[in-house]
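A further point concerns the way the authors explain their paired sequence and structure data. An entry of this sort, consisting of the sequence and the corresponding backbone structure tokens, reads as follows:
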Amino acid sequence: MSRRTRRDFLVQTSAGAAALATVPYWSTSAQAKPLSAADRFTIGCIGMGGMGMGDAHDHSRFGDVVAVCDVDANHRERARGNDNIGKGKADSVEDYRRVLDRKDIEVVSIVTPDHWHTKIAIEALQAGKHVFCQKPLTLTLEENRLIRAACKANPKLMFFIGTQQRSDRRLFMRAVNMAQKGLLGDLKKITCGINGSPTGGPFAKTTAPANLNWDMWLGQAPKVEYIQQRCHNDFRWWYEYSGGKFTDWGAHHVDIALWAAKLTAEGTGPVEIDGSDCNHPVEFKDGNPLADDHFNTSHDFNIVNTFANGLQIHVTSRGDNGVLIEGTKGRIFVNREKITGKPIEESWDKDSYGDADASALYNGKPHEGHKNNFYRCIREGGLPVSDVYSHLQTMNVCHLSAVAGRLKRKIKWNPATEQIEGDELAAAMQSRKQRAGFEIPRVS
């Protein structure tokens, strides 16, 4: 990366940082000043659905998208022809390995269904690429350990997660700062309202459309007949490919809860997870759905994660979507639209939340747009605001909530060993059998 001029990059991005800080984190309207050709990265985008297109558009501000990949030909050709992404010139490929094979590609953006994230990300690291990956990063507790090992084995490569709430200075960062500074007192309870999964079915089993490689889409998951509602946007509501709202919204709000409570380090985590108050739209046996033609992730739940210090984090489908943080001195509620509570109304943080405080949450980097931070960290080094290691702690809580909920009982977790203890069936659910030919690499 020495051939790139860091000074020019800093000048070009800092001008846009203030503007980016004032808009919602989900907005793509605030544009950083385009980089010169010498400073731009070469980027490969894997997964070109709706979210993949949006992320690719954002990445194109910082580099040239030279390859687009999707197992749906319609998706990849749409991306190739897009004036801001492929510009009619990018390679269009079905197999992500053709993207990783290219020596000129420096950055890969992974925006596939969840069950593909870990395998592609690890192989991207092995190919020497910097990685942007959408949340949730993993499908299982075992995958958390596998990807951590791969990242530690490749410390010079930047790995960044698409948890954009971490860059929202006006709302989520303010809430985290207030909690971390002790302004709310000792934290006793945090409620993560993540809504419930939709219900639906029975769905028709049909032949996959000619534009879709269904076998490749399934990847490590069991081979089943094609159902339209298993694929693309609706894959989230099947435990075979995702974790329902536990991992969809949980990856956002549980992340904020752990960040606020300073429980993001390896070795931290809940010691007991109570999933007894959890319902599913289909019948389950031993933690697995018996119907294969209905959405099967939970639509109604309140999972209680208890930590060694007594803090409880409730992951619930009930009430408002957002994060309620309760301490011995006060409480606040934050979501993507507002931040409320007496501490906010009375500005308890008026002398404790300035540029330096925002920079501290950004691991010493200046606060700026979410992907700006990713590319700055590639050039400068350091830990990005949405780092892989803290995200894996979030995913531990999300997956544990799902396991306990699927079994409708309490389970015990050892944060130090990262093992479920005293429950053979629950422990077996820490991993899943991977279909032959789609195994995830193991990095020692």
